[in-house]
Predict the 3D structure of the following.
Amino acid sequence: MSQANGRNGSKAGIGPFASLLKLLLTPIGKGMPDDPLEHMRQRVRQARQLAESITDPQAAKILREMADHGEADIAKLEEERSNRQEPFQIPPITE
């Protein structure tokens, strides 16, 4: 399958924007893990990758801040998980 040429004669999808396009075109729920924290980690990674891929410094700054906030949320949730007590279990009846 051949790729269409862009306006400048380069092949579409080749170059610095290929990874950015891949990230943008990947459906949000596709291939995401069942664990919400892992899903959040993947979103943080994507935000950081996008921040490195774009040329707009203000947009890159916002994406990095979003990733920082996501990591803070993850840390808080992981702490809550680790502090959570095991659910109360009724001991078996013995006679």
Summary: Residues 1-14 have pLDDT under 50 and may be disordered. DSSP finds three helices and no strands in the chain. The helical segments are 18-25, 36-53, 57-83.
